[in-house]
Design brief:
By secondary structure, this protein is of the alpha/beta class. The chain has helices spanning 18-29, 50-54, 66-77, 118-121, 134-148, 153-172, 189-206, and strands spanning 6-12, 33-37, 82-88, 93-101, 106-110, 126-131, 181-184. The strands form 2 sheets. Strands 2-5-1-6-7 form a 5-stranded parallel beta sheet, with helices on one face. The structure holds adenosine-5'-diphosphate, cytidine-5'-monophosphate and magnesium ion. Cytidine-5'-monophosphate (C5P) binds at residues 14-15, 18-19, 39, 42, 58-59, 89, 92, 112, 164.
């Protein structure tokens, strides 16, 4: 690693395609980039039973252990590796595992609320907001949460109406104004190409 890493924030509503976009960049640049998912920093709730953990509002900024993420960003910027928590959506809890994440010249920081905290925003060199209509986002979420996150339809609908939707309009959507780039969906090949070109030029400059 040469200098202070270049930090790219990738925000947007649930189901907008943030993780898809981030993973596509990771596939291109592999170990040349560090990827941090804010979701891995959801607070641990080892003291609460499953039924109680299920009821938590996971779309509110307080659901995240932002201090730990800030500490980890500081370490990565200092060239140190971090022990990143691993989150389990099926258990609504952090696992006992960690992944060792190495510092790289480029850091991608992805999550619904990464632009909602000024301390995180202040560290970003580029801020991206992934845009998608709410109906498409919820449809994608239904399919994904049933297939990958151990949810059933009733539970997804209830959670969407009580917390996900209202928090989206309260905390996620208003952060669009901070974005340097608003991109249409995570499968946007042109946006991927533009970001890949930018990251390539940054990597070349740093070497
Ligand atoms: P986010 O991380 O923003 O919640 P994901 O990237 O996980 O969203 O996307 C949610 C689901 O929708 C995934 O299963 C993904 O494969 C799918 N998906 C993402 N973008 C699109 C798109 N443009 N068209 C169709 N499906 C998409
Ligand atoms: O990938 P995505 O951006 O959709 O991930 C964030 C979403 O994960 C939030 O909208 C939140 O409701 C959901 N979540 C959940 N259960 C948890 C933790 C997060 O449904 N235990
Ligand atoms: Mg995601």
């Amino acid at each position: 690693m040469s200098k202070t890493p270049f930090i790219i924030g990738i925000a947007g509503g649930t189901g907008s395609g943030k993780s898809t976009f981030t993973n596509r960049l990771k596939d291109i640049f592999k170990d040349q980039v560090t990827v941090l998912y804010y979701d891995n920093y959801y607070k641990a709730h080892n003291d609460l039973p499953f039924e109680e953990r299920k009821k938590i509002n996971y779309d509110h900024p307080d659901a995240f252990e932002t201090e730990l993420l800030l500490e980890h960003l500081k370490m990565l910027k200092a060239g140190k590796s971090i022990e990143c928590p691993v989150y389990d959506y099926k258990q609504h809890n952090r696992t006992d595992e960690v992944t060792i994440v190495e510092p790289r010249d480029i850091i991608l920081l992805e999550g619904i609320l990464v632009l909602a905290d000024s301390r995180l925003r202040d560290q970003m060199d580029i801020k991206i907001f992934v845009e998608a209509d709410a109906d498409e986002r919820i449809l994608r979420r239904v399919v994904r949460d049933v297939k990958e996150r151990g949810r059933d339809i009733d539970n997804i609908v209830e959670q969407y109406l009580t917390t996900v939707k209202p928090m989206h309009y309260l905390y996620v959507e208003p952060t669009r104004v901070y974005a340097d780039l608003v991109i249409n969906s995570g499968m946007n090949d042109m946006a991927l190409d533009v970001m890949a070109t930018k990251i390539n030029s940054l990597i070349e400059c740093k070497n």
